[in-house]
Write a structure and sequence with these properties.
Blueprint: H1 7-21, H2 29-48, H3 52-57, E1 59-65, E2 72-73, H4 75-82, E3 93-95, E4 99-102, E5 108-117, E6 122-132, E7 138-147, E8 155-160, E9 163-168
Parallel strand pairs: 1-7
Antiparallel strand pairs: 1-2, 3-5, 4-5, 5-6, 6-7, 8-9
Length: about 170
């Protein structure tokens, strides 16, 4: 009887293949940036559509959201805390990406932009970190909002390419 390798070699090969299965396929940085921008817009649409289960679907299992005295940790805690924002028929706020940037590895990305109240006034800026999963899907791992300094009439400056776009939001 001929032997084609030891059981240890077969186990090692299986472990290597299993480890590779959990690594996301590398995508070019610009592709990752476009994917995250589209994902952020879809994530924001869950609020407009009043679709809490879809909102929760964008959360990574180990997501961390800042905003209160203590950060919210884990998908279940974040989803439970945000459920109140989906309770009323009209969305209490909305957001959209103004800038998205991705690592060269195509595995992490930052999205940032204005948060608007129900009347369309900018009330905050969000900053979200997205992670590409082994499935290729993007999931939010960190989120932190910051109030706009000065309230109504404050100036919001959004980086756009090499220049800065500046607007007065007291409308």
């Amino acid at each position: 009887m001929q032997s084609y390798g030891s059981p240890c070699a077969a186990a090692l090969a299986a472990l290597v293949l299993a480890a590779c299965a959990g690594v996301p396929t590398k995508v070019p940085r610009e592709q990752a940036r476009r994917e995250v921008e589209a994902t952020e817009r879809a994530f924001a649409k869950t609020m407009a559509d009043r679709d809490h289960p879809a909102f929760a679907g964008f959360l990574a299992e180990d997501a961390v959201f800042f905003g209160g005295k203590e950060p919210l940790r884990g998908k279940a805690q974040v989803a439970a805390a945000w459920k109140k924002y989906f309770a009323e028929p009209a969305a209490p706020f909305s957001w959209e990406p103004a800038q998205v940037e991705a690592l060269e590895s195509g595995t992490l990305a930052l999205s940032t932009g204005p948060v608007r109240d129900a009347d369309g006034r900018i009330i905050a800026t969000f900053n979200s970190i997205w992670q590409r999963q082994s499935s290729g899907a993007w999931r939010i791992v960190f989120d932190k909002g910051s109030e706009v300094c000065g309230g109504v009439g404050a100036r919001f400056i959004a980086p756009v390419g090499p220049q800065m776009a500046e607007a007065n939001y007291d409308q």
